[in-house]
Amino acid sequence: MLQTSLIVELLRSQPQLAFWTATLAQAALWWVVPSFLYSSPPGELPLVLAIGHEFQLGSPFGPPLAFWTAEIAFDIAGVPGVYLLAQVCIIIAYYGVFTLARAIVGIHHATFAILLMVGIFAFTAPTPDFGPTILAIPFTVFALVNLWRAVAERRREGWFLLALQLGLLLLTTYAGLVLVFAIFVFLTATRRGRRALRSADPWLATTVIVAVLFPHLIWLDLAGDRSPLAFGLPAQPNGSYLGTLLDFIVTLGFCHAGLMVLVVLGSEWRFRSEEKVAVFARSFTDPFGRRFVYFFAVVPASVAALLAGLSGQPQTVGHLGPYLVLSGLAIVVLAGNSIPLHRPRLVAAMWSLLLVVPPLDVAAAITVLPWLGVSGIEVGQPAAAMGRFFAESFERRTGTPLAIVAGEPRTAALVALGAPTRPSLYLDATPDRTPWITMDDVRRKGAVVVWPNNDTRAQVPAGIAQRFPDLVADVPRAFERMVQGRLPLLRIGWGVVRPQSDDR
Description:
Layout (H helix, E strand, L loop, with lengths): L5 H8 L1 H23 L7 H8 L12 H41 L1 H11 L14 H20 L4 H15 L5 H14 L1 H7 L3 H23 L4 H4 L9 H15 L1 H10 L11 E4 L5 H25 L15 H9 L2 E4 L2 H25 L14 H16 L5 E4 L1 H10 L5 E2 L13 H7 L1 E6 L9 H6 L9 E3 L10 E8 L2 H4 L1
């Protein structure tokens, strides 16, 4: 009697349930772990919130939409609200890929495409670090969905929805220009694309992009030297063009390592096998759909790699998400119209490990490593306690609420985030990047200047002393981590710049 795995039966009879179970399980894990175990936001999120708090139409860090949405989520539900926003972005992106894949390869193979995305590292571990890259992922996916509807299904409204998605994408990150370029090349290089361009709809839809970007375009015109475009490429790249390009390719390969493991485990290892395997078949796939998937799975990442080589700036895993949205679907299309699933239990076990190991690994690092005397987990810094202490100390000494925090960038951003008054962040080492605060504002309103301090001596670091020559260091303040273990206390050096009115 032939026995069928429950996993195969679920994929065969309830593919949509399998999709939602996998997607929501990943989102739940990456919301619960940081919400309950992180005592400070990861990566660049403190800086993102500091920029968003100013609600500028733009900044040297790029377009404003991601910073605005992060600040709104923080105002509504605190840092857990921002973590939830990040997971909502991933859910929407997965649903978009599922929608596109269902139109091209059918619902069963669309589910395979989503399940494979759990093996793409950029869609799992870095997701709580919300920023422009995370917000760009759903906009990228639905731009491709609407491009397919407009060109392949000839739906007029697809052009206007595509333009809206591209406008929002460019309002999130200038890296969205890579996708705009890829779409233009695809339309001009394919017969269906050229036919679509002969109609008025795509050209009329471009007005939507201009309308969405109009306020930011005005800001770019008025900002002058304060715009991101003024910073340009680094004068002296950090490495050679070829070296940076190879680093980008290696990072891309690392991101796909889990996906490749799933593919290998689910494939046939022997040429002659009597094993009875479940086969998931789809009807004939439109060749245009194949070209669409292959093109947008390869070209945007290739263009980004070439640009990364020009900039000389290394790319981290967290920045690659928008270029990898169709990787899983490309593998499914490449597999052909019939996909046999070998060793379903082993594949399911590996898939589960890829799902739960990254968040559980972070949780273990936070709770176990401190007891081994190992530090380096940045999310263990007590941002709320730090912000509260420095805000209260400043107000006791000056009689005014804390309005500005400066010093070492991440430490200052954490204090600005944790302080009840939500002071502005001033990057004193690179003041052009925080143009909403000037040194005159610091002298007029006063500020707290902070920096990491590994000992008990009250000494201002040389760089900070050069920028604040009158700053007197206070005794470093020691803070306990949420899990202190055998680690030494976290010591923060600090000093107060008193408002000028206090000296009169």
